[in-house]
Amino acid sequence: MTSQTDLVDLATIRVLVVDDEDFYRSLILRMLDKIGFKEIDEAVDGAQAVTKLATFKPDLIVLDIMMVPMNGLKFLKMLRIGMTDAPADLPVIVLTGSDDGAHMGTALALDCDAFAKKDDDHDVIRDRILRVVSTPRTMKATDAYGAVTLPTSGMPVPQPLPAHDKSLSSSKPVEVPVYELQPGSVLDHDLVSEEGYILYAGGTTLQEADVARLQDLSGIIGLDTIFVRPS
Predict the structure, then answer these.
(1) CA distances from 16 to 3, 76, 108 (A)
(2) How confident is the model over 71-97, as pLDDT tens digits?
(3) What's the rounded mean pLDDT across residues 210-219?
(4) What share of the chain in percent tops pLDDT 70?
(5) What are the chain's domains?
(6) Which of the chain's ends, N or C, has fewer CB atoms near its CB within 10 Å?
(7) Rounded distance between C-alpha atoms, residue 131 and residue 180, angstroms
């Protein structure tokens, strides 16, 4: 059976790679070229990426988070609230060498479309890109992105909710391995990182894109199982 991804012509997908580390940026550029992508441009930080978008019109962005002077999360927020020359819903794959819960949670709040580790091989990067350009997605209102607070080095870590306050269901929740999670599943309680940052609010009905992003994160932040409401 032919899948949606089989119908994607890699040579027609325009990719902007944004990373301030020359080594990793060059590595991703070579990897994309080897996979079969032909229209690729690069930027060394978020500010240069904003400038690039005035002339280069990518179909998606591969974005590092930890950059100076403009980091990836600030750039992503500018994109989502319409402060660049690109469509606000432009797909973005976050490339990370960090497992910091604040950064991952903020990237989710800003509706990044996928996560990949900097040491992932070309098969993983290819699969992420094909999934992102083939998966239906929805966006929140601009105001919702404007309200997202970007983490800072001095931001205090919130305390996780007490156990008796976490569950939003009167029934016993079902613990599901992340890789068995299905679209339509409803989170039983807030999904928080080890540091206490909320990744998804309890009661959220997970869409196909949400499930895929959580599966991406499972290998980055050690997320093995999730509690959902019994069907």
Answers:
(1) 25, 13, 20
(2) 999 999 999 999 999 999 999 999 987
(3) 92
(4) 89
(5) 9-146 (3.40.50.2300), 163-228 (3.90.105)
(6) N
(7) 17
